[in-house]
Amino acid sequence: MSTTPVEREVIERERERELKERVVEINRVAKVVKGGRRFSFTALVVIGDEVDRVGVGYGKAREVPLAISKAVDDAKKNLFTVPKKGTTITHEILGEFGAARVLLRPASEGTGVIAGGGVRAVLELGGVRDILAKSLGTTNPINMLKATVDGLRRLRRPEEVAQIRGLTVSQVLPIPAKAEELPAEVPVAAEEAPAPAEETTDGEVEDNPDT
Known about the structure:
The protein is of the alpha+beta class. It has helices at residues 5-18, 64-77, 117-125, 141-153, 158-165, 169-172, 175-192; strands at residues 20-33, 36-48, 53-61, 80-81, 84-85, 88-89, 93-97, 100-106, 113-114, 131-135. Helix 3 packs parallel to helix 4.
């Protein structure tokens, strides 16, 4: 069923309400032309719904509000879904872009977002509540954000890995298997425990009743 222009405008407005935006950096740049310099502004913006969708955009214009608007439009084209397990990510990942490297590690509940700069904005608007992040390369904000996005895009869920390998989710995750093996090892340790008790602690030789 086709929608009228008014309905499309209402739908677009509702989508914009769901997404929150955060300006990471605004920079003034100059272009040297005949007769002097021409100044303009660039904006680096992160948008997300604080659940699982996030996107990064970059815009440039003669005025700051217009640059931010262009960056938001660019970020909407680059929205993606972040794979999560509870309030953290599914596994450790190293995102890379250019000279930037951002290490992302899962964290237990209550840890919070341990990150700085634009990386924190990407993780918070992506719905991640507990995570450890560390920048290992350049501190350029644009490259850091793109490295973070690269790491989040390459995250995979256990279901996806199990489907690719033709296994079940329990076979992919080794934690339950290790937990089941522990009770079987306890009796063995209990049987071997009395063996050292036959030796004397003071170095004396026990009496032999047959001699």
